[in-house]
Amino acid sequence: MFFVFWLMISGHDPADLVVGLVTAAAAAWLSLRLLPRTRTRLRLWSVIGFGIHFLRQSVVSGLQVARLAFQPTMSLRPGFVRYQSRLQTAGERNAFCALASLLPGTLPTGTDETGALLIHCLDVERPVAAEFAAEESRFMRMLGDE
Q: What are the residue boundaries of the structural domains of the chain, listed by start?
């Protein structure tokens, strides 16, 4: 990824490729050395299953949001829902929120004073907290936490 970033900012001049490769390798090595050690071990089959589920959920949610956009007569109740996450580390919570923010219809916006996630959703009448709990369980299985 560092090399791709290098190509984006410097262009594709062959003379710069060697410098870019060396710089990207040094940046990758340094970032891995500075990264704190974690006990998280991704499970390959769970990652594949999560990826398939995520793609399917993205399509279904996108179609639901599109249907809502083209039927403005539907009564929506936008607002915020609180969800108490079971993820232990801030890094895990941030990664989960980043993934969850890609799904249409809901958006994790931060935390409240108790540490619960605040999720903006199009309809607070839907079981948003239960859906987030199911997504979080899948995410935790992928990380090997469940």
A: 2-34, 44-143
